[in-house]
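Try this one yourself first.
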């Protein structure tokens, strides 16, 4: 299930609206160009932008043919149903094996853990569409997330940016891979570029906070971490980063509140309960500390430590 959430997260993380109009970041490169959208496609995207998923699903259910099958698959993928997406997208391929069909099918294969099929389709798209940034972007995400091959990820993200210099997520994930390789100055430049291109994209703010926290500058990290939480209040990772920053600064009460919220958002992370335990002890709340320690032990037995 986490893998489904991850690929859907890649799609959702690139959704940036400006005055209700679609931007380059919205699609992550999976959808056809705006000028090639069918009437059905425009209606489905309008429903998605309004978060009216019931209408989006209804529109695709009523549309026969390859175009309807494609949009049905895209909506199913966004709703976390990769199996249904694969079946719909395979139907779409029978009538129109266009790049957007193949790339979205590849994303659905990824979400279903069919990595070999995912890579085969995306690598084929690199050959078929040498000017398309999207295959490099998704292959880079696979390299950094699953293979932990950050050097390969850097190469893919640089290739994506050669083709799409304004794609903020590629700048961010290039920075993330560089950060993992210990190249902090280059990572910071990539995060800053992503932040300037898309100020409402929370990940670059988190990246800048991480770099400063790692460098021992927690006071400088704090405003970046706060902004990441403001932009993505339901993101457990952003909450944890803010909590770590506050803990480092000795602001234990506020840190405890953030650890508690992170625990609500990520019910499987044992390490968060341990941090709640430590904060509660510092604040003298022994009852909370004891409860958090029990939860920590229970979660560690079931899920291990992240």
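Now uncover the answer:
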């Amino acid at each position: 299930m986490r893998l489904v959430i991850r690929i859907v997260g890649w799609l959702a993380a690139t959704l940036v609206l400006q005055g209700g109009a679609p931007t380059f970041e919205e699609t992550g490169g999976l959808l056809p160009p705006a000028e090639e959208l069918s009437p059905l496609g425009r209606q489905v995207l309008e429903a998605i932008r309004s978060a009216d998923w019931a209408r989006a699903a209804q529109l695709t259910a009523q549309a026969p043919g390859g175009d309807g099958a494609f949009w049905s698959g895209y909506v199913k993928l966004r709703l976390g149903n990769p199996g249904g997406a694969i079946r719909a997208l395979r139907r779409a391929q029978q009538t129109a094996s266009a790049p957007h069909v193949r790339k979205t099918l590849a994303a659905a294969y990824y979400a279903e853990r069919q990595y070999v099929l995912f890579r085969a389709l995306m690598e084929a798209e690199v050959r078929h569409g040498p000017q398309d940034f999207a295959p490099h972007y998704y292959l880079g995400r696979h390299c950094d997330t699953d293979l932990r091959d950050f050097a390969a990820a850097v190469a893919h993200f640089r290739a994506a940016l050669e083709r799409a210099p304004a794609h903020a997520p590629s700048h961010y994930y290039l920075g993330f891979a560089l950060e993992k390789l210990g190249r902090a100055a280059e990572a910071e430049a990539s995060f800053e570029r992503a932040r300037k291109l898309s100020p409402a994209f929370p990940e670059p703010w988190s990246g800048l906070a991480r770099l400063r926290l790692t460098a021992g500058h927690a006071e400088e990290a704090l405003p970046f971490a706060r902004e990441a939480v403001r932009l993505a209040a339901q993101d457990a990772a952003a909450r944890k980063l803010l909590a770590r920053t506050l803990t480092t600064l000795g602001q234990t009460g506020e840190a405890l509140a953030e650890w508690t919220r992170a625990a609500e958002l990520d019910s499987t992370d044992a390490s968060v309960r341990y941090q709640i335990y430590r904060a509660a002890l510092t604040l003298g709340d022994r009852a909370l500390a004891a409860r958090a320690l029990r939860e920590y032990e229970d979660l560690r037995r079931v899920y291990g430590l992240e």
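Discussion: Confidence is low (pLDDT under 50) at residues 1-5, 12-26. Residues 110 and 118 are 5 Å apart (CA to CA).
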